[in-house]
């Protein structure tokens, strides 16, 4: 009997311990649940960033200046080369000097060519004398034939001799002209108004036919040649065929090698006939006035053309970040949650990127992209168009 009571007492004690253990575990679970809920609530509160500058995108139409590397050449550029052999006797002008058409630049030794002219004159005089003698002889024989003193065959022979003498005159005149021409080549004159380049052959130097003596450049106007791609050429030609506003009717801007804009504008005149095989490009030519002769032949620069782009979006550079070769912005959804968005800039426009693929009303993080990350929530502080694009006018 006592053993039975002892068992019941032990069983009751075990039940009490089990109830207390379950109550303790339930209390721990509730405390953990409350702690986790409180932690999640705090974490959610921490992910909401206040007053983050946000820009609402609007489509724009801009006149975008596009530049092309160009090669500049004088409208007239001529290499002056020797046509005869001789020594440089005298140089009459200085390098870099402006000369007029027909002005003497330098003189080659001419003694030998003077002698050739004298010899040709002598031969011409001899040929003329022989022709005169043949003419007198023919007239004398003509009288004798008429009087039947000699046969007509002798008169025919005299006429042949006269013809040979007259052809001798023609040959002698040709030799004289050739000698005079060679003599004239010893005096080098300017073919047109222009600026003299360097003289590689100095006084006393021997020159042979084909040697470069100097260059003459007329830089009152200059040509600027620049190359465009086949796609750009096709757009230009389609616009021309459709009668739209053409680049050829616009003023073309030249940017010099020091970055300064040339004060005179140019006009697009013509293009090459064929595409360059290696690059697939074709060259256009622009004429620029150069009254101050600031630009020299062989100079370099950039052609700037106005290119209108419609329905594009200007993304401020400070609103973007790059990872490898891709550009990204943070965009807000309707719940103001941040999402990462990649885009491909068409080209750069000052401190902005020109992009497509966005929609009117898209909102991007304007500033403070270092504070945000994908998935967090923000309370946006909207930035006006005027504030976002206040520097845009400096790039127009």
TrEMBL record:
It comes from the Bacteria. Residues 78-217 form the Multidrug resistance protein MdtA-like barrel-sandwich hybrid domain. Residues 118-186 form the Multidrug resistance protein MdtA-like alpha-helical hairpin domain. Residues 117-144 form a coiled coil. Signal peptide: none annotated. Pfam families: Beta-barrel_RND (PF25944), BSH_RND (PF25917), HH_MFP_RND (PF25876), RND-MFP_C (PF25967). Residues 226-296 form the Multidrug resistance protein MdtA-like beta-barrel domain. Gene3D superfamilies: 2.40.30.170, 2.40.420.20, 2.40.50.100, Helix hairpin bin (1.10.287.470). Keywords: Coiled coil. Residues 311-370 form the Multidrug resistance protein MdtA-like C-terminal permuted SH3 domain. The keyword Coiled coil applies. GO terms for biological process: response to antibiotic. It is found in: Cell envelope. InterPro entries: MdtA-like_b-barrel, MdtA-like_BSH, MdtA-like_C, MdtA-like_HH, RND_pump_MFP. Belongs to the membrane fusion protein (MFP) (TC 8.A.1) family. NCBIfam families: RND_mfp. This is Membrane fusion protein, multidrug efflux system.
């Amino acid at each position: 009997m006592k053993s039975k009571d002892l068992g019941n007492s032990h069983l009751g004690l075990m039940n009490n311990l089990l109830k207390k253990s379950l109550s303790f575990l339930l209390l721990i679970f509730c405390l953990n649940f409350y702690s986790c809920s409180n932690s999640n609530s705090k974490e959610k509160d921490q992910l909401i960033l206040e007053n983050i500058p946000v820009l609402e995108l609007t489509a724009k139409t801009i006149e975008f200046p596009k530049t092309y590397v160009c090669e500049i050449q004088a409208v007239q550029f001529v290499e002056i080369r020797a046509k005869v052999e001789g020594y440089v006797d005298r140089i009459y002008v200085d390098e870099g000097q402006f000369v007029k058409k027909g002005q003497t630049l330098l003189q080659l030794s001419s003694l030998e060519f003077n002698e050739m002219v004298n010899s040709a004159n002598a031969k011409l005089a001899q040929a003329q004398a022989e022709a005169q003698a043949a003419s007198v002889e023919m007239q004398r024989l003509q009288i004798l034939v008429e009087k039947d003193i000699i046969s007509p065959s002798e008169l025919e022979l005299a006429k042949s001799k006269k013809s040979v003498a007259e052809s001798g005159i023609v040959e002698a005149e040709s030799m004289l002209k050739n000698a005079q021409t060679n003599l004239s080549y010893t005096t080098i004159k300017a073919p047109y108004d222009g600026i003299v380049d360097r003289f590689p052959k100095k006084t006393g130097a021997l020159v042979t036919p084909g040697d470069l003596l100097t260059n003459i450049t007329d830089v009152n106007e200059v040509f600027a040649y620049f190359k465009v791609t086949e796609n750009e050429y096709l757009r230009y030609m389609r616009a021309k065929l459709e009668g739209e506003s053409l680049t050829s009717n616009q003023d073309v801007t030249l940017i010099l090698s020091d970055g300064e804009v040339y004060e005179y504008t140019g006009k697009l005149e013509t293009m090459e006939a064929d595409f360059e095989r290696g690059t697939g490009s074709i060259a256009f030519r622009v004429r620029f006035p150069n009254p101050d002769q600031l630009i020299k032949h062989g100079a370099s620069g950039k052609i700037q053309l106005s290119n209108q782009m419609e329905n594009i979006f200007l993304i401020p550079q400070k609103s973007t970040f790059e990872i490898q070769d891709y550009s990204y912005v943070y965009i807000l959804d309707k719940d103001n949650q941040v999402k990462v968005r990649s885009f491909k800039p068409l080209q750069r426009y000052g401190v902005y990127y020109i992009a497509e693929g966005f929609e009117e009303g898209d909102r991007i993080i304007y500033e403070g992209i270092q504070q945000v990350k994908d998935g967090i929530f923000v309370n946006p502080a909207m930035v006006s168009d005027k504030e976002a694009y206040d520097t845009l006018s400096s790039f127009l």
